[in-house]
Amino acid sequence: RGRRGLRYSPLYTRGMTLLQHRNFSARLRSGLFAFIFAPVALVFLGSSMVDVQALASVGQPLASVEGLIGMALASMLIALIALNCEESSAGMVVTFVWSLVVGAAQFLGVARLPLLMKSSVGAEDMFAGVLWCLYPVCLSLMLGACALTIKSVRVRAGKDTRMPLARVHRHAFGTTVALPASVAAGVLMVAAAPSDSTNVAAMGLEGVLEGHTLMPLLALGAGLAFALLVVSARWSITGTQIATWTILVLPSYVILPVWASLTGNVIVPGPSIMTKFALASPPLAALGMATGCASMGVLWARVRALKNLDASQDALANEGPAEG
Questions:
Q1: Which residues pair with 196 in a beta bridge?
Q2: With 0-12 CB in 10 A as exposed, 13-18 as middle and 19+ as buried, what is 317?
Q3: Residue 161 has what DSSP assignment?
Q4: pLDDT tens figures, 145-191
Q5: Three-class SS of residue 196?
Q6: Nearest to residue 292, comparing CAs of 54, 65, 31, 74?
Q7: Which of 79, 20, 58, 52 is nearest to 135 (CA)?
Q8: Cβ within 8 Å of residue 46, ≥6 positions away
Q9: Which helix H or strand E contains 165, and what residues bound it?
């Protein structure tokens, strides 16, 4: 009977059942973890971002300690969700679906945490803070791209990439994709930002929309740049991380707010290019942190898939020829 007898033996059949059970368990663990913690992370991240933006709009970019810490903690939750996707992309898929629900709630102005916000942000302020930058759309695009990338690296583990240049210089190719994508995301977001905060004192954050012409195509372009940035992690996680943290997060989360506070170059009434930079910094920081943390799931998925592939090849090599 030889190999045919081995293939249909009860032990072999039971082994296939155990493998299927392991795959189901990985999907369940990843999906359940994301189902519980993804909405918390997404609501916390968006609420903190608008809180920081609201105070930045009145010339206090570092006033919301709650918002700054909240963005960091929410990003850490996204990182944990991503790390639980090493054996299944179910967690990131669930997070993407939750981002659509939470994003719709943010556009309605209800997905906020007033007790964890320094400023008094109402529903109209929440709506204004996410509308001009299309923050929920950008976040959903990035998370959807991350879920597809994690699935792709698991399916194509051990295979040559379809990109000819990446076959020879994989890390260099990934970096050349990540760096322009991060720069494009920053430039487009700043270009889409309002430039006049005169009405903020009387109306709150919703005052930034008074007299401002929305630029949804620019904001959507920034979202696509974030999606491309996370996709580049399939070739080089180093390039993605460097581009995300040094070009997007570090300037918008640390350098610009600290510099503005120390030098007094904060938002003041009237049109100003500094207003654009100051208002664009919170969404860039939030999206950049989320991108950097979510992309770690691509690395762990690739490492685990390659380990499983090596283990399978070793098992086949050690099986030896079947006895007749």
A1: 271
A2: exposed
A3: P
A4: 999 999 888 776 555 555 444 444 466 778 888 999 999 999 999 99
A5: strand
A6: 74
A7: 52
A8: 102, 106, 111, 112, 130, 135, 136, 139, 286
A9: helix 164-168
